[in-house]
Amino acid sequence: xxxxxxxxxxxxxNKLYAMLLFGxxxxxxxxxxxxxxxxxxxxxxxxxxxxxxxxQGSGDTGTASTTWSISTTGGTIDEMILDTPVDARTGNFxxxxxxxxxxxxxxxxxxxxxxxxxxxxxxxxxxxFFYKSxxxxxxxxxKPGIYLNNTSGGKTTSKVDVSAFEANTWIKSYGTxxxxxxxxxxxxxxxxxxxxxDNTEQPMIxxxxxxxxxxxxxxxxxxxxxxxxxxxxxxxxWAAPTGGVDNGGYVVVKYxxxxxxxxxxxxxxxxxxxxxxxNGTGGLFGTVVxx
Length: 291
What we know:
Blueprint: E1 3-8, E2 26-28, E3 32-34, E4 51-52, E5 54-55, E6 69-70, E7 76-83, E8 93-99, E9 105-109, E10 113-114, E11 124-132, E12 142-147, E13 155-156, E14 160-161, E15 171-178, E16 186-194, E17 204-214, E18 226-230, E19 236-239, E20 250-255, E21 276-277, E22 286-290
């Protein structure tokens, strides 16, 4: 028997739930779920190309970056986009970067946001992401932030972890900043890696499920749909909420047999159609078939 599972969402909030607890995201064409307000950031990295991150630093002020990048070539070691599901939190793609022991900072940067859809000056934004590391990282050594004109006028803040650190386990983290008053043709969101710069070896850090939204950190659960139906032909139905937080897009995950309660997709996960969901017990594989 095939089980089809439905997820709902809204573009301005951030939380992805399974089954009756539903997340918030944009319907971006037919392929990728993008949560937050800036789809061009490709926060799930699912539209990236595996390989070394492109360097984009101070000499590129005002130049838009079409891919994820690193602030300074040589600032990190083995800075790469990975197309290996085992390394990702959600989907197939993720990013890894390790601060060069000789450097005290480097930035992992999203694709640029360009006018007229760029981030606004003097505005509060929350930068939210997941990371994992073999060793604990001080809040001040992993700083989310926003750069309104690429490299100058940037605003960063020490991360806030939502859960306690566990080695090599995905940790949800965020920071809220208010942008400055400088604006050029493009701007981007970042995670700034910090360290002493005294040749002390730094840990390799992985990143995934990155999102930016206006306002303070938001973990409000949206309203749930009602009147869910499913038949043996694979047809599903539901009644979307008529108010509250949620009223957004849809994600459908199909299994070849009845899934368990813990086989749901990741909260805050960003998926592409065709991605596999392997969470939970039973060794079950679900496939994202519609967004």
